[in-house]
Write the structure tokens for this entry.
Amino acid sequence: MEILLVSIPDAATALSVGRTTVYELMRSGQLDTRKMGRRRLITAESLRRLVDKQD
């Protein structure tokens, strides 16, 4: 099964950046998030889109 949502620390690890940078990317709209209960998760699709845009 494909992973659809990742936590903020996992996204930071995947992008090789710090959590603060992930929060800035979320705030600027470059990363899409979903609220699941009390957790804020990042869509894997938006991570891929961000990486593809950097090429």
Observations:
- The two ends are 27 Å apart (CA to CA).
- The chain has three helices and three strands.
- The longest helix spans residues 44-54.
